[in-house]
């Protein structure tokens, strides 16, 4: 399950930021896991909940937004929304799609406290 590795990386990223920026705890962590990112959001949430005890993220609310995938269709020259990399273009039915969005996993916000 690569989501456990991703969760560990997210926790390290936030812990490094806490040390660098001198905050003690996080009350809100908001992530984006795009539809084309290959991340199973339920598994990531479970892995994060298992990884945060004893860190500055302990007790934090974790929100994970799931933006849709977008792609440029080389067949019809349109930007379209897709749910997976295997989808056909909803406009022309072609499969020559270049993903342009929804491929990322990123930290969007942190609400931090220095108390």
Description:
- The structure is a single chain.
- With 115 residues, this protein is an alpha+beta fold.
- The protein has a single domain (1-113), classed as 2-Layer Sandwich (hypothetical protein PF0899 fold), CATH 3.30.2320.80.
- The protein is built from 2 helices and 6 strands.
- It has helices spanning 2-21, 41-51; strands at 25-33, 61-65, 69-73, 79-82, 97-101, 105-113.
- The strands form 2 sheets. The chain has a 3-stranded mixed beta sheet, with no helix packed on it.
- Strand 3 and strand 4 form a beta hairpin.
- Helix 1 (2-21) crosses helix 2 (41-51).
- It is elongated and about 55 Å long.
Topology:
Layout: H1 2-21, E1 25-33, H2 41-51, E2 61-65, E3 69-73, E4 79-82, E5 97-101, E6 105-113
Parallel strand pairs: 1-2
Antiparallel strand pairs: 1-6, 3-4, 3-5
Helix pairs in contact: 1-2
Keywords: Metal-binding, Nickel, Zinc
Protein name: Hydrogenase maturation factor HypA
Binding site for Ni(2+): 2
Question: Gist?
Answer:
This protein is an alpha+beta fold and 115 residues long. Helix content is 27%, strand content 32%.
């Amino acid at each position: 399950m690569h989501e456990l590795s991703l969760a560990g990386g997210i926790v390290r990223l936030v812990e490094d930021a806490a040390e660098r920026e001198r905050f003690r705890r996080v009350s809100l962590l908001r992530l984006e896991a795009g539809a084309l990112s290959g991340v199973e959001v339920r598994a990531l949430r479970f892995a994060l909940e298992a990884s945060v005890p004893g860190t500055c993220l302990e007790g934090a609310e974790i929100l994970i937004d799931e933006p849709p995938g977008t792609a440029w269709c080389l067949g019809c020259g349109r930007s379209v929304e897709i749910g997976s990399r295997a989808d056909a273009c909803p406009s022309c039915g072609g499969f020559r799609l270049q993903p342009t969005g929804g491929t990322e996993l990123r930290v969007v916000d942190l609400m931090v406290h220095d108390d």
